[in-house]
Design goal:
26% of the residues lie in helices and 23% in strands. By secondary structure, the chain is of the alpha/beta class. A six-stranded mixed β-sheet has the order 2-3-1-4-5-6, with helices on both faces. The protein is globular, with a radius of gyration of 15 Å. The two termini are 27 Å apart. Bound molecules: guanosine-5'-diphosphate and magnesium ion (MG). InterPro entries: P-loop_NTPase, Small_GTPase_ARF/SAR. It comes from Parnassius mnemosyne (clouded apollo). Pfam families: Arf (PF00025). GTP binds at residues 14-21, 69.
Length: 175
């Protein structure tokens, strides 16, 4: 099927190298981890189908489109019909956080995403990077966003490589 014809209700965006592919792969392979996977930067977009069982006990599939950081100028092509936005920021790379903040604000201000739910994933929250958490949140002005916006992002701390944060992401996606 042409990927553009498929209904993709979730978009996963954020700077290059922030851990999007690792996170989505882990989410997809949560039951059987794929050890053959070695991350290479995503050029263009990838689609991940996530299987889950809904409240009625029915099997469902949720499609997520990852849009690479280099594709930032093309994000606009993928925003129609988006219900949820996963925005991934690399906490281990504070140099990238202010650029990420600009991207995030652009999406939050996008009329087509007015009714969409956002989750802000603080990625790579390994022990070594935990201390950067508060600086990252300050740079992203998360507190201000929460007080000023009706669609302020939910916050999730994740370490995609270790698979931490997957439960939180799954529940955001399913509910
Ligand atoms: N330290 C650390 N590195 C990670 C983590 N998750 C992903 N990475 C690494 O970050 C790099 C970029 O990851 P990738 O998923 O390709 O990022 P993307 O460009 O946003 O899709 C890879 O080398 C990953 O192995 C993590 O939780 N901790
Ligand atoms: Mg990628």
């Amino acid at each position: 099927m042409d990927e553009l014809e498929k209904n993709i209700p979730v978009i996963c965006v954020g700077p290059t190298g922030s851990g999007k592919t690792t996170l989505l792969k882990k989410l997809q392979d949560a039951e059987g981890i794929d050890y053959t996977y070695s991350p290479v930067p995503t050029i263009g977009t990838n689609i991940y189908d996530i299987n889950y069982v809904n409240k009625q006990g029915k099997k469902q599939v949720l499609s997520i489109r990852e849009v690479g950081g280099e594709m930032v100028t093309l994000w606009s092509n993928y925003l129609d019909g988006i219900e949820k936005v996963i925005f991934v920021v690399d906490t281990s790379n504070l140099c990238q956080v202010s650029a990420a903040a600009v991207m995030l604000y652009t999406l939050l201000a996008e009329p087509r995403l007015r009714r969409s739910k956002f989750i802000l994933v603080l990625s790579k929250m390994d022990a070594a990077y935990r201390q950067m958490r508060n600086e990252a949140l300050l740079m992203l002005q998360h507190t201000r966003l929460c007080s000023e916006l009706h669609n302020a992002p939910t916050l999730l701390e994740a370490a995609p490589l270790a698979g931490t944060g997957l439960d939180g992401l799954r529940s955001f996606l399913i509910h």
